Amino acid sequence: MAAQEFHFRHFLATIGTSNLAMGLHTVLYPWLVVGVLELSPSQLGLAQLAVLLPNLLFILPGGVISDRRHRGSWLSLLYLLYSLPIAILIGAALSGELTFSLLLMFGMVFGSISAFVQPARESLLGYASQDLMHQAVAKVVMVQFIAQGIGFVIAGQLDTIGLTTLLIVQMLMFALSSILIKRSHPQRVIETDIADPQAETEEPKRETLQELRAGFALFLTDKSLLHLLLLVTATGFLAFGVYLVGMPLLAREAYQGGAGLYAILQVTFTMGIVLANLVVSRQKHAFKRPGRLMIISFLGRGGLLAAVALMPNFWILFPVIFAWGAFSGMSMTLGRTILHNQVPHSHRSRAASVYQLCLFAGAPLGAWACGVAIEQVGLAQTFTVIAGLTLVVSVIATMSPLWALKATNN
After folding, report:
1. pLDDT in tens, 28-72
2. Is the separation of the CB atoms in 149 and 23 below 8 Å?
3. What dotted CATH number matches 8-184+210-404?
4. Given CB 3.0 to 4.6 Å as the disulfide criterion, which of 98, 197, 222, 394 pairs with 4?
5. How far apart are CA 276 and CA 141, in angstroms?
6. Is 263 helix (H, G, I), strand (E, B) or coil?
7. Burial of 114 per CB tally in 10 Å (0-12, 13-18, 19+)
8. Is the predicted pLDDT of residue 251 greater than 60, yes or no?
9. 10 Å Cβ neighbour count for 99?
10. In what helix (H) or strand (E) does residue 163 lie, and over which residues does it extend?
11. Could you tell me which residues come within 8 angstroms of residue 226 by beta carbon, excluding any fewer than 6 positions away?
12. pLDDT at 212
């Protein structure tokens, strides 16, 4: 059968346009809660929970569906579907009826679409060269966060540009992503060849439940992959939770800033991610101990969160946020590289969905818990506790098989 056609440059362009739109979402959505409606930290945590919770429900079946479909066409449709919740938000903004309940509904629809997008898009990356997978992942992460950074800067002009205009820009970026992703993976091969471009015989479709079990089995039979999932879950609960809720509240409560300051903090964090992945993309050979580096990066984030808890002046805060982003960027790339190099091509969408499930299983709970904790004990105290828990998890992880994992190529 014919091999799958894949254009990496168009894929990178899609990553850019879609993540510019996501950058707008990352700043606008929480700021509408705390900056426009002026609601409490616990309500911000609930709003982020609404976006992330659909992943728990749909990301696994999303991975199975992606393995059964032509990914370019499927993703093209999904990117167009983002227009639905954005249009609802535009209508509310124009009519002056923006409410917390509406934002929760928006978050649930937006998050549901994302649950199907993530495993399908992640599995497309598997068509890149296996020998240079770490470079491909690093390039994707760099483009992703450069584009998000641009989105952060644009969203930071909320008071000047206006909410409606920013939402229209976001909708146009998703429409452009729909066109580009179809060009990156054109439907020119026999449909039965979709799941595995290297397959020589057609395999019958299995039941959805069996396919989900097959995805989980990959991690249950490989202890290093299982411990990767545990570390990713901890990342979602601790690091992702405080990032989603703690960062906007840091701007508003600790430094009495507005959407502009929040956007600058996001851009600084993003610059750290980009720098880390620029370094990785220049590595000619894969890291010999990717699991060990991932654990060290997690440890580093714990120390940096402790520094943020001190609420330092801006001369110290921005370098700390930058370093936090760098460690986060390194961890993202290492985790995805391990996943792609350890999992067979035919199961990558399912494996990616399990990986994302673990990340987003921790994130909504972490976001909600962080919001409640900030409301009850304060911003600095919450950062301190999360920093301590991060350090404890890091020490425990040094005794896991992930610490000794050696780089392998499929």
Report:
1. 999 999 888 988 899 999 999 899 888 777 877 776 776 677 778
2. yes
3. 1.20.1250.20
4. 197
5. 10
6. helix
7. buried
8. yes
9. 10
10. helix 163-184
11. 219, 220
12. 62
For 178-201, the pLDDT digits (tens) are 999 988 877 764 444 444 444 433
Instruction: Check if the beta carbon of residue 354 is closer than 8 Å to that of residue 60.
Output: yes
C-beta separation of 170 from 320 below 8 A: no
Place of tokens 């483009």: 143
Classified as helix, coil or strand, 280 is helix
| Rounded Cα gap, residues 22 and 31, in angstroms | 14
How much is the pLDDT for 176? 96
One DSSP character per residue, 53-119 reads HHHHHHHHHHHHHHHHS-HHHHHHHHHHHTHHHHHHHHHHHHHT---HHHHHHHHHHHHHHHHHHHH
More confident residue, 201 or 223: 223
User: In this structure, are residues 386 and 305 in contact, taking their beta carbons and an 8 Å threshold?
Assistant: yes
Q: What is the pTM of this model?
A: 0.76
Contacts of 315 (CB under 8 A, 6+ apart): none
Q: Minimal CA–CA distance to 265: which of 276, 280, 253, 277?
A: 253
Tokens at residue 225, please?
A: 């992959």
The one-letter amino acid code at 133 reads M
- Cα distance between residue 375 and residue 377, in whole Å: 6
Question: What is the C-alpha radius of gyration for the chain, rounded to an integer number of angstroms?
Answer: 20
Q: How far is CA 287 from the centre of its chain?
A: 22
Rounded CA gap, 291 and 227, in Å? 10
Alpha-helical (H) ranges within 250-377 are: 259-281, 290-309, 314-342, 348-377
Q: Which of 282-296, 334-348, 361-375 has the highest mean pLDDT?
A: 361-375
Q: What share of the chain is helix, strand, coil (3-state, %, to 5)?
A: 80, 0, 20
pLDDT of residue 334: 85
Q: Which of 99-113, 120-134, 255-269 is modeled with the greatest confidence? A: 99-113
The C-alpha angle with vertex 306 and arms to 305 and 309, in degrees rounded to 5, equals 90
User: CA 403, CA 220: separation in Å to the nearest integer?
Assistant: 17
What's the rounded Cα separation, in Å, for the pair 173 and 410?
Answer: 34
Half-sphere exposure of 341 (CA within 13 A, CB side): 26
Percent of the residues in the chain that have a pLDDT greater than 70, as a whole number: 84
Instruction: Name the nearest CA neighbour of 325 among 341, 352, 345, 305.
Output: 305
The distance in angstroms from the start CA to the end CA of the chain is 21
Contact 269, 324 (CB under 8 A): yes
